[in-house]
């Protein structure tokens, strides 16, 4: 079993680092921070899926930190088809 160090390395995944995920993982990155305040949801979804895919392929315990905008009202469609407000 791999030994796990207690100190964690957190890296924000942005445009400059998207194509270097494997290199970052190999260098010891423990937590991928994705800033959902910038870019579209589709762009962030692609970025998140790429992180999850490489994490699975390399079998590494990489955490995913999704940083959303500050306090605001968020609404969305639920599977019931009704709109639900989240505080």
Automatic annotation (TrEMBL):
<keyword id="KW-0670">Pyruvate</keyword>
<feature type="domain" description="Pyruvate kinase barrel">
    <location>
        <begin position="5"/>
        <end position="82"/>
    </location>
</feature>
<protein>
    <recommendedName>
        <fullName>pyruvate kinase</fullName>
        <ecNumber>2.7.1.40</ecNumber>
    </recommendedName>
</protein>
<dbReference type="InterPro" id="IPR040442">
    <property type="entry name" value="Pyrv_kinase-like_dom_sf"/>
</dbReference>
<comment type="similarity">
    <text>Belongs to the pyruvate kinase family.</text>
</comment>
<keyword id="KW-0460">Magnesium</keyword>
<dbReference type="InterPro" id="IPR015793">
    <property type="entry name" value="Pyrv_Knase_brl"/>
</dbReference>
<keyword id="KW-0418">Kinase</keyword>
<dbReference type="InterPro" id="IPR001697">
    <property type="entry name" value="Pyr_Knase"/>
</dbReference>
<keyword id="KW-0324">Glycolysis</keyword>
<dbReference type="Pfam" id="PF00224">
    <property type="entry name" value="PK"/>
</dbReference>
<keyword id="KW-0808">Transferase</keyword>
<keyword id="KW-0547">Nucleotide-binding</keyword>
<dbReference type="GO" id="GO:0005524">
    <property type="term" value="F:ATP binding"/>
</dbReference>
<dbReference type="InterPro" id="IPR015813">
    <property type="entry name" value="Pyrv/PenolPyrv_kinase-like_dom"/>
</dbReference>
<keyword id="KW-0479">Metal-binding</keyword>
<dbReference type="GO" id="GO:0030955">
    <property type="term" value="F:potassium ion binding"/>
</dbReference>
<comment type="pathway">
    <text>Carbohydrate degradation; glycolysis; pyruvate from D-glyceraldehyde 3-phosphate: step 5/5.</text>
</comment>
<dbReference type="GO" id="GO:0004743">
    <property type="term" value="F:pyruvate kinase activity"/>
</dbReference>
<dbReference type="GO" id="GO:0000287">
    <property type="term" value="F:magnesium ion binding"/>
</dbReference>
<dbReference type="InterPro" id="IPR015806">
    <property type="entry name" value="Pyrv_Knase_insert_dom_sf"/>
</dbReference>
<dbReference type="GO" id="GO:0016301">
    <property type="term" value="F:kinase activity"/>
</dbReference>
<keyword id="KW-0067">ATP-binding</keyword>
